[in-house]
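Why do we bother with a discrete structure alphabet at all? Because it lets us treat a fold like text: something you can write down, compare, and reason about line by line. To make this less abstract, here is a complete entry for BBS10 protein. Read it the way you would read a sentence in a foreign language you are learning: slowly, and without expecting to understand everything at once.
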Amino acid sequence: FAELHAAVPGLPVASSRVLPGIVLRRDFAAYCPADGELRAVLVTEPLRPALTAPGVEFVVDSEGQYQASLRWIATRTEALMKHLQSNNVKLLLSSVKQEEVVIYYAKLYGVSVVECLSSEEMALISEITGVSPYAPFGDNMGREITETAVATFCQPLLLVSKRCVHIGFTSACAFQPHCLILCGPVDGVNEQHAAALQEAFTMLQQLFKTVDQ
């Protein structure tokens, strides 16, 4: 329930509504409008490639080596974004904050980015779509990307002064998510309404639970 409702203070209760899909309460790090269905991937690691393996010290002896390292990082990041583009990936959903070089090449190759998603939001998206996070690096970076979800729409949503991301996914199961936008004059009213609704849904779950005979 926490991931499927958003409280919006400063509006009358009558402005409350139900939206198809899910609402992520953060703004796009990069937004590239796309028409029709689009493919999305989940990632749980930075997409800026590391120069060394974990626990290995990397020593730069000169300014030239440092600049060469930055060029290698930029080239590898661009190659990854080209790979996403060639697999028709238009949306990147990340549980970590991505580096500026990643955002730059995402914009260049038409990939929208939403970052800093919570573990609960990532788990919900995985449950809806049936896909696991994509691991981009390693020997198989050039392989076809199969860990993709299909989004029917992905667009900005303004809730008073808060910029959010509104996404509709093609569900891999019977669960068709909708998000409840709860409006009220102050936070306290919204919290009361949210608590009452959650209790009502819990009661309905208990009412319709299968009873083992």
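What the structure line is telling us, in plain words: The first strand starts at residue 5 and ends at 9. The chain is about 30% helix and 25% strand.
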